[in-house]
Every structure is written in structure tokens, then in C-alpha cells.
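Anyone able to model this chain together with coenzyme A?
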Amino acid sequence: MTSQGYGAPYAAEPRHPGWPARLGPLTVRAGTVALRPVRLLDGGEWSRIRLRDREYLEEWEPTQAGHWHERNAHWAWPPQWASLRGLARRGQCLPFAITVDGAFAGQITIGNIIRASLRSAWVGYWVSSRLAGGGVATAAVALVTDHALAVAGLHRLEATVRPENSASLRVLAKVGYRQEGLFLRYLDVAGAWRDHLCFAITDEDRGEGLASRLVAKGLATPPEQR
Ligand SMILES: CC(C)(COP(=O)(O)OP(=O)(O)OC[C@H]1O[C@@H](n2cnc3c(N)ncnc32)[C@H](O)[C@@H]1OP(=O)(O)O)[C@@H](O)C(=O)NCCC(=O)NCCS
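re: yes, here you go
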């Protein structure tokens, strides 16, 4: 414990760099990926995709009260959007919609932002099953990580993933997150306390940029080179 005590990292800071923002584009197999703030008008597509993709998503998402159909109905979006917008205005999260060729395709959120001497947050994401394996999440994680570390002033990002979630493990490996540990019975997911692997990246790992690294590895192209 430092001389300032545990309270110091949680102290509010007057400015919240990096929000609002538009990130990308970056072109991958599935199309051209860009990130923008979530909008009230995303509700229709958000609900349509999430009702269709229940089986694909529910296995990996934190347990919540209520039935999937109620929680993901069109009318469930406005309060979620308002809550995300409020957190973003207070500098506590960066809630992005992922778009592919201009259409809503999922979400990526930097959450639980803590500044001062910690400057840390988590990253969470989901992508429509119709685009699975198309490189969308990889591009989105690279773009948002570059932004959080280079522009929003964070030093470290963490991602926690169930060991069974092969697709998400692969995404983090491609972007360059390193595995740091195993959290036992960490999070209530799909109705039970699940172990999670902890991955992290810090600003020192970013080099010339993670999106540029994807391009150099041939995993993405800036759109003009397509
Ligand atoms: C995880 C998720 C975001 C990945 O999105 P995506 O756009 O398909 O990801 P990408 O295409 O960028 O990369 C996925 C990689 O995993 C691989 N993959 C997919 N399913 C796999 C499996 N069952 N086993 C091994 N690899 C798998 C893909 O082949 C791809 O790797 P490649 O590019 O080397 O071929 C998406 O599956 C999803 O939304 N899942 C449900 C929600 C979720 O799990 N969120 C993350 C919680 S930690």
C-alpha cells in the first residue's frame, strides 16, 4: 500500500481523453471494420442479432436476471445505451459499436476504467455469428487497444476469458495480449462460477501500434490497399 492509501487510484479526474471517438477503418476477410460510439438507434439490429445468436453468445456472457428474450428485446436497449452513455460521460467506460461495411455487427467496450496511478481497465466484446472467423473481433480489439493506450491515457488493459472459449483466446493471441494467470471461479457466466484465464497488455507492448502489426502480418489491410 502506498502512502496515499488504496483510495488514490479511484479518485475522480476532471477530464476523460479519448471519448467520443471513431476508430478504424481496417479491412479484414469479413469486410471493413470500424468502431463508433453506441447509438440509441442501434437497438433494432442489436436486438435482432442477439435474439438470433442466443446459443452463440449466452455460453460466454455474465449471468443476468431475467429471460434472454426480455433482456435482449428491442425495448431493453434504450436503458442499456443510456447507462453506457452515462458511464462514458463520467470517464468510466468507452462503449463502442463494431460496424462491418457500415452495418452494426457487435460491441466492444473498455470498462471499469481506473486512472491515477493504476490507469487500467478491462476489454469485453461480441460479434454477430454471421461474421464468425472473419477477423472482425481481432481488428476491433487491436483498434480499441491502440486507442485506449495511446489516446485515452490508459497503461494496462485486461481481458478475462473462459479456457473453453477458443475463438476469444485466438483473438487475444493474434492481437498480442499475454496470458498472466488463471482466476478460479472468477465470474458467474451461464449460471455458474467459471474459471477464467487472465490476459493483459500494457503500453510498453504496443510498439508502433497493434493495428499496424496486424497489417504487417497480413491479417488486415487499410481500406485503400484492398
Ligand atoms: C469471440 C468472438 C468475439 C470472436 O469473433 P470473430 O470476429 O469470429 O473473431 P476473429 O475472426 O477475429 O478470430 C477468431 C479466431 O478464432 C478461430 N476460432 C473460431 N472458433 C474456434 C474454435 N472453436 N476453436 C479454435 N479456433 C476457433 C477462428 O478461426 C479465428 O482464428 P484465425 O483467424 O486464426 O482463423 C465471437 O466468437 C463471439 O462474439 N463469441 C461470443 C461472445 C464471446 O465469447 N465474447 C468474448 C468473451 S471473452
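The domain at 20-225 is CATH 3.40.630.30 (Aminopeptidase).
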